[in-house]
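@channel sequence for tomorrow's demo:
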Amino acid sequence: MNEKLRIPERLKVGFQKRDDTYTGKLAYVISGGRKKDPISWDGWRNKKIAPQEFDNVPIEGFVLNRDVGGTQRSYDWNARRERVRVYDPRDFEFEITVENVLLILQECSSIKGKGLEGEFVLAWSGSHVVLLPVCSQEYKTAVEFIELGEKKVAKTDIIEGYAYLTKNKENVMYLGRHAWFDRVSSYNSRWDKKIIGVKKHIFFKLDESNGKKCRNEDNYAIEHGFTKLAKKTSDAPLPQFAEEYEKLLKSIFVSIPKVLTVDKPEICERQYGWFYGNPVGVIRDNSIYWGMLTESQCSRHYIYGNSTVKEEDMICKYDVDCEFVLTIKNGELIKTKCEDVPCLKYSKKDITIDEVKAICKTVYIECENKARYKL
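structure tokens (generated this afternoon):
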């Protein structure tokens, strides 16, 4: 069950007629106050039965009705999660997960003939409705999230080096506003221009740094403003501020990309027909022509079926099938389709095995602060 349970102020309930319920109505409950009802909810409910809305306040009188089965662990096409039906004192029934039932029985008693003891509200764990005991720690935690969501930090209280608690209960330290340069993946926004230097507010994640192994960029929270902050938690800059601030300035994330460089050649010693699928970066006019190395049609000087031909008599050439071009201009890493570059000569050009070894290199972007990263 998701630890960050969501408790809406209002509930909206749609109904279907069901003979196997106390009231003859099975309910599909969603959070109220929406501008538009979900398609799944509106398509499921019986349009002849008017939906109802309720305040989501603690009430008592819930009863565990019956197990409605489920074949979640089967390989059937209609496998569904196992559920238990609950009677709601507002005169309808709805379904909860077995995990939810275990939480309820852990926190309160189910008395024969009287139902569940104590008060409950409805909450959501992801897309699943949860019958939540008011006496549980999960309810108290969810209420804390609601209270944090209503809080905000004044702009005058945003000071570099100070610690803050976010509305998701994450502890962060403010490192200031810097131009943040995102790393560009060749798999995301493949053909689009992407500005990689934009002024943003950068926070260091204090919870992530406590011995947790993660990528360097995962240590930072990048925000356009301060709406996700709930409160300030320190009255002075933290002791580690100077060290983390220096690390940030020396990183690749806040420095302007300057030049495109290449390192030593990759291992390209494999024989003739094995090059299919190797990524290749070709440097030309301060741009990288990035593509895949593929085997072109080979010219083999032998008669079909003649097994006496020597390997050195075989002539095999290769193509660089260009996928996109990367160019740095004024702090922007621009990604362009190869067919949009009329001067490109590398696509579909036959090259020899020696030329392949010469251009098969690891490509880096070097920043003004001397930091660099590999594409």
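heads up for whoever presents: The two ends are 38 Å apart (CA to CA).
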